[in-house]
Amino acid sequence: MATSKHAVLRTEVPSDQIMRYTWVERVCHWATAATYGYCGLSGLAFFTPYLYWLVIPLGGGPTARFWHPALGFGFVGFIFWMGFLWKDDFKFIPEDYEWNRKVMFYITNQDEKLPPQARFDAGQKVFFYVMIATAVVLPLTGIVMWFPEYIPRSIHWLLPVVVFFHSVAALVSVGMIIIHVYMGTVIVPGSWRAITVGYVSRGWAMLHHALWYRKMTRGEERK
Fold first, then answer.
1. What pTM, to 2 d.p., does this model score?
2. In sequence order, what are the beta bridge partners of 199?
3. Spatial contact of 105 and 111, defined as CB atoms under 8 Å apart
4. pLDDT digits over 122-163, tens only?
5. Which residues, 6 or more positions from 150, have their beta carbon under 8 angstroms from its beta carbon?
6. What one-character DSSP code corresponds to residue 115?
7. Which residues have CB under 8 Å from 74's CB, separation 6+?
8. What's the pLDDT tens digit per position in 21-38?
9. End-to-end CA distance of the chain, in Å?
10. What distances in angstroms separate CA 34 from CA 18, 37, 39, 103, one per listed residue?
11. What is the C-alpha separation between 207 and 114, in angstroms, rounded?
12. Which of 87, 141, 177, 178 could form a disulfide with 166 if both were Cys (CB 3.0 to 4.6 A apart)?
């Protein structure tokens, strides 16, 4: 069967590379990113009038108001799908706790001084679980904000409380996304290519995720 020559769609992996993410995993990641991106930008526009101009490329105020909650539930669905795909990879292992103690080496790009990591390092796991937490808080509070007319007058004081927690969860998620993008593009070169093309060099895998690399190449060593 013919295989695509396009880097993003190709199914064969060059001999000096190793598959990092499957096509399905990449689709899940970018679907999560796209839905969150729309919700994040429109949410910032609704949060403060100084950023309301962000709704212009999103289709305008009424359009953003319609799609913000709809795509918000899409984001929740996609991130839980991601958790299902990578449920075993997101489990914490003993090396993760040592990695957390030496996190400054990661920040200063001295990965050779860090303990070997599995498919995802401790920082990526923390990021995922924080985003999962926000993916629970945001829709629960968002539903109340979506239909405020159904709140009984006797507990109408609940609305500003809900708005507060929705805003906190949103700002936490925005901060985590900024860190995630910065780490994946500046601190760890090659991460962006991995999540778009799907594979990385063997040297990159050995440096950043040695435990995962050994697991993936165990069969090769026996040959």
1. 0.86
2. 19
3. yes
4. 999 999 999 999 999 999 999 999 998 888 888 889 999 999
5. none
6. P
7. 31, 35
8. 999 999 999 999 999 999
9. 26
10. 26, 5, 9, 29
11. 9
12. 141
Distance separating alpha carbons of residues 11 and 29, to the nearest angstrom: 18
Domains in the chain, CATH or no CATH each: 19-218 (1.20.950.20)
Query: Nearest-CA neighbor of 176 among 103, 124, 110, 101?
Result: 124
CA–CA separation, 193 vs 104, rounded Å? Answer: 24
> How much is the mean pLDDT over the chain?
90
Helix spans in the chain (H): 23-47, 61-85, 94-101, 103-107, 122-146, 158-182, 191-197, 202-208, 210-216, 218-222
Residue 74's nearest CA partner among 40, 47, 34 is 34
Q: Which is it for the CA torsion 180, 78, 144, 43, positive or negative?
A: positive
User: Could you tell me which residues come within 8 angstroms of residue 158 by beta carbon, excluding any fewer than 6 positions away?
Assistant: 144, 151
Please give the torsion angle defined by the CA atoms of residues 48, 50, 56 and 61, in that order, rounded to the nearest 10 degrees: 40
